[in-house]
Sequence to fold (204 residues):
Amino acid sequence: MFAHLKGTVDAIELDHVVIDVGGVGYFVHASKQTLSKLEEGEATKIFVETLMRQESLTLYGFGSKEEQAWFNLLLSVQGVGPKVALGILGSMTLDELAAAIVHQDKAMISRGDGVGPKLAGRILLELKDKCKNIAVVKPSELGGRSSTLSLSVQDAISALQNLGYSQSEAMRAIQQIDHPSDMDSASLIRLCLQSLRTPIEVRR
Fold:
């Protein structure tokens, strides 16, 4: 129904934001991670997932398509509803979530609001195979940086995805190349394409 909302942040509360789009205020539930990046009165673009439950239409917003994809992935687990999914997304970064699933870290998943040991175990079990191709980034693999990727790395990954590569392929290419932490995105993209060794035309 809605792909995204582009407007002004009218109000930010603990679990939602109101986005003013052409004079209409949209009530959008969001994770703490997404809400922390918003400022009242500032223009924003937020990706939206629309869910219909018991004749009620509810909007869920995300700061990136990656977060939106994780939201839907979490919802695929039995017992995980929108509130719990947002609680998990708000308690850790996407890199930390991916690492927790790959390494079957029940304690990390249990940090999410409403996630007990039993549900945490189910999440890890059901998502293990679905996430096996996700590239988990370690600080040592990205020049000693933290799991929060630099803007140049994020730009490079986005550009590679636009060329047709998957996120996991792009992440693996970043990990494999030798590059300084302050390398610009254009240079990163060039090195990644050399590492992937696949003609761009094939991916289009």
User: Anything to note?
Assistant: The longest strand covers residues 43-53.
